[in-house]
């Protein structure tokens, strides 16, 4: 065939074409070239085409031939390229092989992959040339899809896999184990079931061998766990139990670690698979649990190990106990492992310093502390707080009695964590946590005292009312004393927070002997404390008023001047947060005192609310919500005496109920989108609050709100179908009966034959029915 491309006389001898002259001007000529390339026993022609790709003047001709082969004979081209890829290296260059490999990868199909891998596995054991080609085949392994191996090829394929596991060649073992793990990764492990026992025997042999490298053992461990996790129903359980024993023997045998700590990565690899096994089938570990736990705790307690290794060991124990059967396995091993785990977690929680100790919630500063606290929570939830504290007091007692403040604080923090996560079991034995914590409130170190105050707060939230019933005589004096510690403002703030949560669930009889001192300390905090302390002192005063009820009357005239002063100062300084907290406290106290005792105390707050329209405030200003709540509480306190203020209060509540939501759908920038979502959340909260308070006002004023009832109905009825927020819908629905009752009461009072009541019924009842039907559907 004549070539249409003239050859340059300067072409080097080694670069001149090996192909016969060829003119790619017709399909017939290209098909002839294809026949030569694909059908000849000698691949020289196709090798020459690949070589010519590097010769500038001949590239066009070779590309035309290759394009024709790719378009019309892709499968046959793939098979021919396979032969070239694995052709002896003295016949073709590395460049030619690489070019063939790239073309092969671009054409590689799943169907061809199955046909290609199997023959290669078959010749690996006997053909040294095939072993040399393993690096090239590894590049193709990611394309290998076992799903396309025909079922009638499975026996031969699995036989080839198992036979090659007897190879003494490192490369062969690594490759074959990679193929096995590829089967597990792709969910085609069922192919191996035909020779599963043989496969497990071969894996045991590799794991027991001292002649293979750590990389081969890692691959064998991965394959072993694959068999255990994926094929445990296809073979006798004892058979796989023995396989797990062999795996553990690679790291731990006859009480001794079998690898140096420089090989920590291998231990982490084992731990990672043990975690997966515990998560999938913890019961399977029952026969090897002593060995597994011994290995796990060695890695956990070794200070030379990296944090990620120790965390992984902790994760294994946690996953084990979070499984019911796994938890029983651990408990059956005796007390030692539980004590060691508790000791390890306490040590982690004790890794605090002067900078991180005073805030349990600022956990970014210390990863170890964060991990220890989260792990203690999971461990206590799984085993039960009462079980831990009654059965294993020694680790905690050791910390409480330690001279190191970090360990004492760790014990206190642990008890607060356990109380939060095991409240149901501890309520009947509150002394298990309360007694040790109360001993720490007077600790010599301020960090421990702060931790004790934080623990009192947590116990107050999660162990009420048992804590209040049995420990108010100890807790209240301790809180009062801590609030008086002006040398450490953080302890004062925490004591005020704990006071708020503790007194919320106290009775008036519990509080009565301590009211003088507690209120005196809180008022002093309002005088001398910084903003955060003032905020929590205000919250605590409101809680005391609610809990002590009538007994707070004796202190009302003493408390109000302080609150008025704080309110006036906060308003003058434009301190919206403190102003909102003060108004919240005052209105909460008025709810307890009742309208008969108020006299003119409400005037200053009413004037403040009237002169500060909510619409003028930023959507995130706390005064928006607190202002609405203040109107609602004033209405509740004053009853019909509230009517003069309705012209200001009701429009304010209606305006909040009518707020519209911003459209965030078309906003692409993440920062702006997040800002709009926050605004949307604030609006939804305000709408729901306004709806609730409108209902309360209607229920309190009854026919007295008659002049506003139509406008209220017009605002709330459409919200029955407000599906962006369930709380808004529910609040609007609950307001409907109150609207109807108020309208009917006004109608009866005026003795009108026809009133807006009938119209309201005709508007509201169908809307309620429609909303109910939509909810049901």
Automatic annotation (TrEMBL):
GO terms for biological process: protein import into nucleus. InterPro entries: ARM-like, ARM-type_fold, IMB1_TNPO1-like_TPR, Importin_beta. It holds the Pfam family TPR_IMB1. One of its GO terms (cellular component) is cytoplasm. The keyword Lipid biosynthesis does not apply. Residues 1-12 have a biased composition (Low complexity). Residues 1-22 are annotated as: Disordered. It is found in: Cytoplasm. Residues 411-564 form the Importin subunit beta-1/Transportin-1-like TPR repeats domain. Keywords: Cytoplasm, Protein transport, Repeat, Transport. It comes from the Eukaryota. PANTHER family: IMPORTIN BETA (PTHR10527). This is Importin subunit beta-1/Transportin-1-like TPR repeats domain-containing protein.
């Amino acid at each position: 065939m004549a070539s249409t491309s003239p050859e340059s006389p300067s072409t080097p001898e080694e670069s001149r074409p090996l192909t016969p002259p060829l003119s790619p001007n017709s399909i017939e000529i290209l098909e002839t070239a294809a026949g030569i390339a694909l059908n000849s026993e000698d691949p020289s022609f196709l090798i020459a085409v690949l070589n010519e790709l590097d010769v500038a003047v001949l590239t066009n001709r070779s590309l035309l031939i290759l394009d024709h082969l790719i378009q019309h004979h892709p499968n046959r081209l793939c098979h021919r390229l396979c032969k070239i890829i694995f052709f002896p290296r003295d016949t073709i260059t590395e460049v030619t092989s690489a070019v063939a490999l790239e073309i092969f990868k671009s054409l590689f199909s799943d169907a061809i992959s199955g046909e290609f891998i199997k023959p290669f596995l078959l010749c690996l054991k006997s053909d040294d040339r095939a072993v040399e080609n393993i690096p090239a085949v590894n590049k193709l392994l990611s394309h290998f899809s076992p799903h396309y191996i025909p079922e009638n090829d499975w026996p031969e394929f699995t036989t080839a896999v198992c036979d090659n596991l007897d190879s003494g060649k490192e490369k062969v073992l690594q490759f074959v184990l990679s193929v096995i793990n590829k089967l597990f990764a792709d969910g085609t492990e069922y192919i191996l079931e035909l020779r599963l026992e043989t496969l497990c025997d071969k894996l045991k042999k590799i794991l027991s061998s001292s002649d293979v490298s750590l990389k081969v053992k890692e691959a064998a461990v991965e394959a072993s766990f694959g068999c255990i996790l994926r094929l445990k129903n296809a073979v006798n359980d004892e058979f796989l139990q023995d396989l797990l024993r062999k795996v553990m023997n690679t790291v731990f045998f006859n009480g001794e670690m079998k690898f140096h700590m420089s090989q920590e990565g291998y231990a982490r690899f084992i731990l990672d698979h043990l975690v997966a096994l515990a998560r999938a089938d913890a019961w399977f570990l029952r026969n090897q649990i002593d060995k597994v736990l011994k290995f796990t705790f060695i890695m956990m307690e070794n200070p030379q190990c990296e944090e990620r290794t120790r965390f992984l060991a902790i994760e294994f124990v946690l996953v084990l106990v979070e499984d019911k059967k796994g938890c029983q396995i651990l408990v059956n091993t005796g007390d030692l492992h539980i004590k060691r785990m508790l000791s390890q977690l306490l040590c982690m929680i004790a890794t605090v310093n002067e900078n991180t100790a005073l805030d349990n919630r600022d956990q970014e500063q210390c990863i170890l502390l964060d991990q220890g606290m989260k792990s203690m929570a999971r461990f206590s939830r799984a085993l039960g707080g009462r079980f831990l504290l009654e059965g294993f007091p020694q680790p905690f007692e050791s910390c409480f009695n330690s001279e190191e403040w970090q360990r004492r604080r760790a014990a206190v923090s642990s008890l607060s964590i356990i109380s939060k996560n095991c409240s149901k079991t501890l309520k009947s034995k509150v002394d298990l946590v309360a007694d040790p914590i109360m001993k720490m409130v007077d600790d010599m170190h301020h960090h421990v005292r702060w931790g004790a105050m934080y623990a009192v707060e947590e116990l107050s939230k999660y162990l009420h009312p048992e804590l209040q019933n049995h420990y108010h005589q100890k807790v209240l004096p301790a809180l009062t004393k801590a609030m008086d510690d002006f040398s450490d403002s953080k302890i004062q703030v925490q004591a005020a927070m704990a006071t708020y949560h503790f007194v919320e669930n106290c009775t008036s009889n519990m509080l009565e002997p301590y009211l003088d001192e507690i209120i005196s300390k809180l008022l002093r905090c309002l005088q001398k404390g910084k903003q955060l302390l003032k905020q929590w002192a205000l919250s605590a005063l409101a809680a005391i008023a609610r809990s002590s009820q009538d007994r707070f009357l004796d202190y009302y005239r003493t408390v109000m001047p302080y609150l008025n002063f704080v309110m006036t100062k906060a308003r003058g300084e434009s301190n919206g947060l403190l102003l909102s907290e003060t108004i919240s406290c005052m209105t909460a106290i008025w709810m307890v005192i009742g309208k008969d005792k108020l006299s003119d105390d409400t005037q200053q707050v009413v004037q403040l609310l009237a002169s500060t329209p909510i619409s003028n405030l930023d959507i995130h200003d706390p005064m928006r919500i607190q202002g609405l709540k203040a109107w609602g509480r004033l209405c509740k306190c004053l009853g019909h005496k509230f009517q003069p203020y309705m012209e200001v209060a009701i429009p304010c509540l209606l305006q909040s109920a009518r707020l519209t939501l911003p459209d965030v759908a078309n906003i692409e920038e993440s920062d702006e989108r997040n800002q709009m979502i926050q605004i949307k959340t604030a609006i939804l909260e305000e709408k729901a609050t306004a709806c609730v308070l409108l209902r309360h006002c209607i229920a309190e004023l009854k026919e007295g709100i008659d002049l506003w009832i139509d406008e209220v109905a017009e605002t709330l009825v459409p919200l029955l179908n407000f599906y962006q927020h369930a709380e808004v819908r529910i609040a609007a629905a609950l307001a409907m009966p109150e609207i109807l009752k108020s309208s009917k009461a006004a109608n009866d009072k005026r003795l009108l034959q026809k009133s807006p009541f009938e119209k309201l019924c005709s508007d509201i009842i169908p809307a309620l029915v429609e909303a109910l039907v939509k909810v049901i559907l």
